[in-house]
């Protein structure tokens, strides 16, 4: 998720779940090929991690997929779901649902040059092209090019008239359509995305689908991730402890500062860690008010936690 699931968030998320597959923000082929930033940087601890690409030029996508594989990413995912105007001008994102042949060519070009999975994240329709047949034609053509895994954001996108935020809220969720797709394409690996807030909901969807992708809830309420390994993957590992997670983030922030970064680059992703517990507000406030100050140090995390420390409840499952 743009601006949210950067490498700092992903490092933090990985301390909560060893198993969940993490996705980068969408990175455009233009940024990777022509940009000056180090857009493919990530921490080794993040694995398994998928790079999401935005683009529609098959050769450029292939070039970026190859770089991603060389850099060690575990998967390359193509964004066919983002409805923003900026993205449409670049002819990528959700508007590509109208050009399944081009998406198929892109997948084919990427698959020719990498061995890691090439996957696609898509909506269930765009504008008036929202019939089940439109969706199945898209999936059929892209699957024929070798894409075996799709994430289905189970709502359509309006390409004009709605902001990206509205496009994540206003078009109604249609889980039934995603379930039907799975029934009609049993050979494909299909994950469901959109509006999922609890692991119990994940378990319900997993009776019909092969996977689930949780976006906003995993960001705003990150401790949800702590139960993923046990509840979803059946691992027998102890639940991550919030305090230990914060303590492990301190040296990470130290390293980030040493490389010229700021404390709030990291701590802004941790604001929701204590959600639902007494003291959550004080944690959030301390970090939001002080982490951006020039003299902020990594110890601010411990200071902020000390304020909530006494009121932490014992974990109940
Ligand atoms: C701030 C923000 C940025 C997002 N950026 C991306 C993105 O870069 N690529 C993408 O495929 N989806 C992006 N999304 C959409 C989410 O991946 C997801 O499809 C959507 O929020 C619905 O799932 P959820 O209800 O679990 O959040 C973004 C969502 C938000 C809130």
UniProtKB/TrEMBL annotation:
Sequence ranges assigned to domain DUS-like FMN-binding in this UniProt record: 1-295
Reactions that this protein is recorded to catalyse: 5,6-dihydrouridine(20) in tRNA + NADP(+) = uridine(20) in tRNA + NADPH + H(+); 5,6-dihydrouridine(20a) in tRNA + NAD(+) = uridine(20a) in tRNA + NADH + H(+); 5,6-dihydrouridine(20a) in tRNA + NADP(+) = uridine(20a) in tRNA + NADPH + H(+); 5,6-dihydrouridine(20) in tRNA + NAD(+) = uridine(20) in tRNA + NADH + H(+)
Pfam families noted in UniProt: Dus (PF01207)
Protein role: Catalyzes the synthesis of 5,6-dihydrouridine (D), a modified base found in the D-loop of most tRNAs, via the reduction of the C5-C6 double bond in target uridines. Specifically modifies U20 and U20a in tRNAs.
Listed name of the protein: tRNA-dihydrouridine(20/20a) synthase
An example molecular function term from Gene Ontology annotations: FMN binding
Keyword Metal-binding (UniProt): no
InterPro entries according to UniProt: Aldolase_TIM, DUS-like_FMN-bd, DUS_fam, DusA, tRNA_hU_synthase_CS
Active site (catalytic residues): 82 (proton donor)
């Amino acid at each position: 998720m743009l601006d949210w699931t950067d490498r700092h968030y992903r490092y933090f998320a990985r301390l909560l779940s060893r198993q969940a597959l993490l996705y980068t923000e969408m990175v455009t082929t233009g940024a990777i090929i022509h940009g000056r930033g180090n857009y493919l940087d990530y921490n080794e601890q993040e694995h398994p991690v998928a790079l999401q690409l935005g683009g529609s030029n098959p050769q450029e996508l292939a070039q970026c997929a190859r770089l991603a594989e060389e850099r060690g990413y575990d998967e390359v995912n193509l964004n066919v779901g983002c409805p923003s105007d900026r993205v449409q001008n670049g002819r990528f994102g959700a508007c590509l649902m109208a050009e399944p042949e081009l998406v198929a060519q892109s997948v084919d070009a990427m698959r020719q040059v990498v061995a890691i999975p090439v996957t696609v994240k898509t909506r269930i329709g765009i504008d008036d092209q929202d019939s089940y047949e439109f969706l199945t034609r898209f999936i059929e053509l892209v699957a024929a090019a070798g894409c075996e895994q799709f994430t289905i954001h189970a709502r359509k996108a309006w390409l004009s008239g709605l902001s990206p935020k509205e496009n994540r809220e206003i078009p109604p969720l249609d889980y039934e359509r995603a379930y039907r797709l799975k029934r009609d394409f049993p050979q494909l690996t299909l994950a469901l995305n959109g509006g999922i807030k609890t692991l119990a909901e994940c378990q319900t969807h997993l009776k019909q689908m092969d996977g689930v992708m949780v976006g906003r809830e995993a960001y705003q309420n990150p401790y949800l991730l702590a139960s993923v390994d046990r509840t979803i993957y059946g691992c027998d590992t102890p639940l991550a402890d919030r305090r230990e997670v914060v303590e492990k983030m301190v040296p990470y922030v130290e390293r980030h500062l040493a490389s010229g970064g700021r404390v709030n680059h990291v701590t802004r992703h941790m604001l929701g860690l204590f959600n639902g517990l007494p003291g959550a507000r004080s944690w959030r406030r301390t970090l939001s008010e002080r982490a951006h100050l020039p003299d902020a140090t990594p110890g601010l995390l411990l200071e902020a936690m000390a304020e909530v420390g006494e009121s932490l409840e014992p974990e109940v499952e």
